Amino acid sequence: MNNLAILLVYQATWFAAVIGAGHGQWWPGVLCAVLFALWRLARSPQRALESRLVLAALAIGLVLENLWTGSGLLTYAAPWPWAGSPAWILALWLAFALVIVPLLGYLHRRLWLAALLGAIGGPLAYLGAARGWQAVQFSEPVWHGLLALGVGWALAMPLLAALAARGLAPDQPGEPTR
Q1: How many domains is the chain built from?
Q2: For residue 173, is it within any domain?
Q3: Which terminus of the chain, N or C, has less C-beta within 10 A?
Q4: Cα 70 to chain center, whole Å?
């Protein structure tokens, strides 16, 4: 599967979810994530592994998002179906899980790098959603929310990368070459 196509569809899903939520609509991101998942899993040579990654990412996302919202650090626009973890943010966790094998193979055995990129990239994505489209609101002081996001993503990224590495044989696509 063309990695550029995967990246573009993932980014389109992110924008649909964030822009939709910023306009009070939860369903654009969910629809895009479901279509992305159907397309990706239909063509994936590691369908079972990626399905397990989706389930793991949804579980991790549900825990972290409820922790962040329950503590008052974050508030989401378009909070359907409940105020804790709205459908659109969980759709983003689902979509993210689908890029771990094809696009983030270099992280599968470099868990320290996965943690570092998670600690930086996770908060930046939320900050972009907040500043660009008002899909997320941070409580004051904002750095508390950013720190919590950094810690959460610094744990989530290496966990998901390790799950991917465990499911891939050394000669399968998505595995870094040695």
Answers
A1: 1
A2: no
A3: C
A4: 19
